Fold this sequence. Notes:
33% of the residues lie in helices and 11% in strands. It is α/β, with parallel strands linked by helices. It has 3 domains: 2-66, no CATH class; 73-223, no CATH class; 225-296, no CATH class. Strand 8 (260-264), helix 8 (268-277) and strand 9 (283-286) form a beta-alpha-beta unit. Helix 4 (73-80) packs across helix 5 (95-102). The model has no long low-confidence stretch (mean pLDDT 90).
Amino acid sequence: MYEALGIDLSQPEVSPDFEELLNRLDTTALQYISTLGLSKQIADRQKAFSVAINGLREFLLEKCQSLANQKGPYDRLVSSLTEGDAVVSFNWDVLLEVAFKRNGKGFCYWDNSDGVTVVLKPHGSINWFALLDRELLSVDTSGNWAVFGNHLTYYLLFLRDPLGSRDLGKSMVGQALASVPAIVPPIASKTLAVGGLARDGFVSSGHERAMVRIWTVFGEFVRNATEIIVIGYSLPGTDGASIALLKNFAPDPAIHSTKKLMIVDKDPQVLKRYQRLVHPNAIWVSSDFEKFDPGR
């Protein structure tokens, strides 16, 4: 980590935020020298990345657990959702999932096959774990673990209760399950980091197909939506895929003049960015999620 950052992380006052840390530890930068016999140097960087990801997960889980019984803006948002709504979150934490559980509502990370609210996480989650092998796999879904898309060929598992047990029960996936969560680090390529190397290309392809499916469902909701509410997402230039999809919300504003795009953000410049890139009639509705009333 010192090699990547140039500073001693034992001094908290000079430590960077997690996004900058993960950006600098990006291991894909080493892929073109992986055959040069530099395994020690590459392994050190990979280990540092895993340590950071695990630290991130534990930190976020601890914060989410401390708020598990405390109602807040997410509860108003979740209680306002109706059939056909979807929530897209670019966060890694599980505050949204905890709010669904607190309000006795179901959700799924996929499409709406179960008649519950779709929660899409295009940047992954600390609640997702990848399988790195495809031999002799079975998952005990009577417990807390569930399978993405109800099919093991995507090689991604998640916890129904994100704050609940990680006991595998009778599952035969212990040796194949990555020890760190599957997230998309804040790098320009925006590729899923699964916490290790898949044994073969078929497993890697499964992870990729899962993410493609999530982004496909995201695009379908954007294209078919009549109303989008954006809360605290500034549409950063590094998120090229998100910009491309959101532009499809109203490709011709004259034809789609009845579509509504509402912004909740403290920075008024964010509204101007959405008006220029997504919809000229986007409106600002609140500066603070805490004060935002989704029922209005």
